[in-house]
Amino acid sequence: MQTFYPYILFGLSLPVFFYLVFQYRQTKDKTSIFFSLFILSNPPSWMLFLPTYLQLYLSFSAILYFIFSTKYLLLEYELEEKTSYSKLLFFSPIVFLFFPFFPGIQDRLNSGFILFYFIIFSLMGLRSLLQLFKPAIFMLFASCFHFTALLVLPGVYQSKIETPLISNGFEILGVLFLFLGMVYREYSLLSEKQKAREVVIQTQEEVILSQKDSVIQSSEKVQDLKESLNDAKILFHRTAEEIKTPGEKILGLIQITLSSKKRKTIQEYKNKLSEIQKRIEQIVHLSKILEDFSSFEQKKIQLQTGPVNLKATATVALDLLSPILSRKNLYVRNNIPEELPPVLGDENRLIQVFHNLLENAIRFTNEGEITIEAKSISLKVEEENRRDLLSEEKFIEVKVSDTGVGIPEEFLERIFMPYEKEEAISSESKGLGLSITRQIVELHGGKIHANSKVGEGACFIFTLIPYS
Prior knowledge:
Largest sheet: 5 strands, mixed
Number of domains: 3
Distance between the termini: 108 Å
Strand content: 5-15%
Order of helices and strands: HHHHHHHHHHEHHEEHEEHEE
Helix content: 55-70%
């Protein structure tokens, strides 16, 4: 019976050998080559054919097993850094060839060397297992079976047991475990490669998405820049128009005065100079508006806040506009209650808000009335850093309404933009005044909007924070 075991072992080795050669052609993993050579070189099989060369089999098999083990356990890169250690393990099996010259202690030398290699490979396997390389468990079992087979092999260590039978049995188990380990190792490495590939793909997708976002952001910035340049062109064009109109009138008045051959009275000269003064005041006023607009755009405005009486503030703005009001058939109502609580704000800037809104109303209301109203209200606002929570806060709501030409509803959001084009807007949005007004109100912690219908006038509503 025991004579069949070497044949069984050799018969198992051949298909495994061809399978591993085929596997190498597919994966280019040199571990398959060294494993196949190791299987073919196992001493129990070759003792059938050349029984007198046992020491040569042992030496050659140990070298192949060392190379195979380091590659199987993925330790070759670590051993490259420890050159002297790896060379010692690699060349030490050659010592097997000299053991026959010491027949008295040959058995002990053989068993000692085999035990030494068993310990080394077991430690290597345990180290890999501790590093969570699961195929190492197959390596540990195979090492136990393989070196047990060598220890009981005839000619290696004298034993009273039927050693050929046991040796071949352990060798078969060792080969099977190593083969299973190779299959599991290949599966594990493929799984790791697949995971690594997925990580790479995911990383590439993230990079692509990031680049896509960067491109989109760059595109948006370019678009914003184009819009800013376009707005700057419109601003420049409209500003030039507004400066040009009073400038042309000044030039016209001067030319008429100089070219006239009639002798004029002092009063006539005063009237002409008064008209020129008004046009120059228009240019100065426009330059102040431009200066304010630039300051707001560059966020250079600093408010000097304190308690502000809105009724008195509106009255000051009306007094400043009295020359314009006197030329129109308009009635202005300042219906802000005397008892209205003061607001927290910069008085001069709030006068500017009333001035801009009232000037806008006067300009586009030929007859009728302009009304100023204010009252305390409560609004629900989102709490800071908690959008899901609303709290009720007190505000002062101010309304400036007129009976002018009105604004189409679809343009109500655009009238606070600087120099908004007005092909379809009746005119209540021209210039920079409303844009500056919105920025002042927002600096005070409030909001502004407009309600209007064409032909029914407009109502500008803004909120301010009460002083406390």
